[in-house]
Specification:
This protein is α+β, with helices and mostly antiparallel strands. It has one domain. 29% of the residues lie in helices and 15% in strands. The chain contains 3 helices and 5 strands. Strand 2 and strand 3 form a beta hairpin. The N and C termini lie far apart (59 Å).
């Protein structure tokens, strides 16, 4: 029996930490401990549905930002909304 999964209605692909780990080739622990809340930002790269503890990562945003070249200068301080402050 083959299971068919419909594409997401919102146009976004939501991934668990394990699923994201397989796609970006980083260990789950690295994602949780080093990337989450420093590189991967809540509301931009991941959500917590229904205010719960479960984290779902937004693949399209992560893929876009992961492939973008680093644009920050040495004196730039990144902001949570994606902007920077130049020091």
């Amino acid at each position: 029996m083959q299971i068919h999964i419909s594409p997401p209605v919102t146009g976004y692909t939501y991934l668990t930490t394990d699923e994201l780990s397989l796609r970006i080739k980083y260990d789950c622990r690295t994602i949780r401990d080093r990337l989450k809340d420093s590189v991967l930002l809540e509301g931009k790269h991941y959500i917590r549905p229904f205010g719960g503890r479960k984290t779902l990562y937004i693949w399209e945003t992560i893929e876009r930002d992961m492939a973008a070249p680093a644009k920050l200068s040495r004196m730039a301080i990144p902001l949570a909304n994606g902007g920077v402050i130049h020091g």
